[in-house]
Amino acid sequence: SAVISQKPSRDICQRGTSLTIQCQVDSQVTMMFWYRQQPGQSLTLIATANQGSEATYESGFVIDKFPISRPNLTFSTLTVSNMSPEDSSIYLCSVRRDKTYEQYFGPGTRLTVT
Amino acid sequence: AQRVTQPEKLLSVFKGAPVELKCNYSYSGSPELFWYVQYSRQRLQLLLRHISRESIKGFTADLNKGETSFHLKKPFAQEEDSAMYYCAPLNNNAGNMLTFGGGTRLMVKP
Known about the structure:
Strand content of chain A: over 45%
CATH topology of the domain at 29-100 in chain A: Immunoglobulin-like
Shape of chain A: globular
Largest sheet of chain B: 6 strands, mixed
Order of helices and strands of chain A: EEEEEEEEEEE
Radius of gyration of chain A: 13 Å
Oligomer: heterodimer
CATH class of chain B: Mainly Beta
Structural class of chain A: mainly beta
Number of strands of chain B: 11
Order of helices and strands of chain B: EEEEEEEEEEE
Distance between the termini of chain A: 36 Å
Distance between the termini of chain B: 41 Å
Number of helices of chain B: 0
Strand content of chain B: 35-45%
CATH topology of chain B: Immunoglobulin-like
């Protein structure tokens, strides 16, 4: 399995501001993903973070709202821009082991927007 | 539309009782299927995948293509099994992305 860390673990932010979440993996992985888990709900895929190119966003998510960086094979950031209370969620980083479809998850970042 | 359904949001059983967490999918072809578990205050982790045919922590899951189901079963539930369980098929018609069911909270009472 992969060891995944996320920073910050939680934050309380004011509406209209932005927060950048970092994800660090202990080994190089090709596939990294960002998910959102809204209160009481399941996980929803936001985007695939591609190394060296623009992220691939799922329906309902756009780059202006959730810009993603992936400078190398062990690190990615997700920014939640111009936040509103509806963005209050847990944001999860996930990686997939190469040559398998097994995915591993970070501990999550709990974001509260007031 | 391809989807995965976990019909029970909450399943409550007594310790030692059998447990079955239901998962139905509507994917075409032969998707790979996974069960993930999230214990209290822990991160989401892979429990098992159907292709491995393993028993993990006493849990097994059989893929039934006829019924398009992938139910998770354990003959004797333990209190430490209390957690949130997610069924997750791999959507091979959408770039091989995991799609998560709504989840079932299992509560095992003493």
